[in-house]
Amino acid sequence: MDRIPNEVLSHILSYLLPGREKHRLPRDRIDHVLPVRLQSVKTLNDYFRSWRQLLKIDSIKAAVRRITIDPAPWGCVDGNGGDPLLRPAFSSSFDYWPAFTAAVTRICDIPNLGSLIVHFYNDGEDESGTTATQKRTLEVITRTLEARNSRPNTSIVRELALHGLKGTPLSAYLTDNLFRNIQRLHITVTYGGEERQRPEFSLYLSGTLLPQVSDHLVELTLGGFLWGFIPVEFNGKGLSFPRLKSLTLGDYIVLRQDQFDWVLKQRSLRDLKLYSCHIATHCLVDEFYFGARAVNLNGWKKVFDASTDMDQSDHGFVSNTPYLGSLQHGWYTNDLRWSNLFDRVRENLPELQSFTFDDIGWASYCYEELLQFSSKDGLSQRYLTFCKGGWSMMWYIPVTERGVWWYVDDTGPGCAVGLYTRTEPTDSQALERLIEETRKRREVK
Fold first, then answer.
1. Which of 236, 79, 48, 252 is nearest to 165 (CA)?
2. CB of 195 within 8 A of CB of 221?
3. Whole-structure pTM over 0.85, yes or no?
4. What is the DSSP string of 33-49?
5. 254 and 278 in contact (C-beta within 8 Å)?
6. Which residues make Cβ contacts (< 8 Å) with residue 20, sequence separation at least 6?
7. What is the DSSP string of 386-440?
8. CA distance 84 to 78
9. Cβ(379)–Cβ(357) under 8 Å?
10. Which end of the chain has the smaller Cβ count within 10 Å, N or C?
11. Distance of alpha carbon 344 from alpha carbon 434, whole angstroms
């Protein structure tokens, strides 16, 4: 490979790059943002020989700006602890760890690297193994970045993306060192088993990690699988990002207006993207999903209806709930609508020049090849109902259109048939006002 002229190599690479990267290829030159992927299976089988050979070419080393470390098989996307398509490429006891470690340390030899992307794979059947793999991988990367920063004439890596991160707090060593120089941080979380969102990780994120990096972040992405509400709320109250220009939230569930206020406090924002974000409008409270969990339904209204499908013994109070004193079993409703939030974004973020509201899921902005499946209609899934551990849009659809499901008619207390239709005009108008305002601001700038 080192005998191939640069212009020929550039031509070859142009066929290998993703579509959105091809337009960035200068004519007859190696891509100045050449992405390199430390991918599984083939790369592992030759103990990263191809990677080592690639880095023997000085022009390649100088051209690389972004590296993806992917311990998962290519194309494996598992967002919610479901059945994996393929097994993980390696685990905590995998024989290739020495070779993998040696391959990662070669990052020190890439002088102009600016971005590092790590894709993790979640095997719901082996929680301890995936957590250990994540920890070990991040420790290798952290030590490598520390060594790289001590080298002269070497750029500082300012962008870090951790996709499929296990929902457990990182160690103090990783928290203190991995994010030290990061200005653009992207985190998407995946979960194993039935516990899709862990209380300790949300507290770690809002109380430890984000406050530690808040002063120097200019770009932030937070995503997961229907996160932010149950079993624990994510609320960035008190978080301040004085330099933040771009914020992306994926699959974030909003249950109260004040839960979204932390976003509106970031007045330096110029770009806000909400991907597949939802407002919860109805919620069935029961002992199993709400007992001893920090679910804040302040401002929600209890629906008193004898037709609620519960045993009489369940009509008491949910035990140990920390908010409202006590929650009663049964349905609760929320009056918050997207029209309210769109207007508040327009009024409270004076520097905002770009706003995106789309329905693509969390995995789509982790894996670029999935972006093509976006419907570009963010309003299509904007409201959700929570019932017996699951989120659904079915409660808004008439029985005549979707058949008998959890309820046999449209009069039950948890039904909100027609809500999408009733709110569509005001939501659409508020969204249009917001987008038009950002357009005007761009023209003025």
1. 79
2. no
3. no
4. TEEEEE-STHHHHTTTH
5. yes
6. 368
7. EETTEEESGGGS-HHHH-SSS-SSS-STT--TTHHHHHHHHHHHHHHHHHHHHHH
8. 6
9. yes
10. C
11. 9
Structure tokens that stand for 239 in this block: 């978080």
Helix (H), strand (E) at residue 331: strand 330-333
Strands 390-392 and 383-387: antiparallel
- Amino acid residing at 189: V
> What is the 8-class DSSP label of residue 360?
-
Distance CA 172, CA 321 (A): 31
The answer for residues whose C-beta is within 8 angstroms of residue 206's C-beta and 6 or more apart is: 234, 235, 236, 239
Task: Give the C-alpha separation, 90 to 134, whole Å.
Answer: 11
Name the amino acid, one letter, at 24.
R
The whole-angstrom separation of Cα 4 and Cα 147 is: 31
409's tokens = 């008619």
pLDDT along the chain (445 residues), means of 10: 50 50 39 46 59 82 86 46 33 63 90 91 57 88 95 95 89 96 94 60 92 97 86 87 97 94 98 95 86 80 67 51 66 95 98 93 54 60 89 85 65 82 96 97 87
Cα 119 to Cα 89, 178, 220: the distances in Å are 12, 16, 17
**Using alpha carbons only, how large is the chain's radius of gyration in Å?**
24
DSSP classification of residue 157: P
Rounded distance, CA 342 to CA 348, Å?
Answer: 10
d(CA 310, CA 314): 6
Using DSSP's 3-state secondary structure scheme, residue 190 falls into: strand
**Whole-number Å distance between alpha carbons of 315 and 308:** 10
Q: Exposed (0-12), middle (13-18) or buried (19+): which is 172, by Cβ within 10 Å?
A: exposed
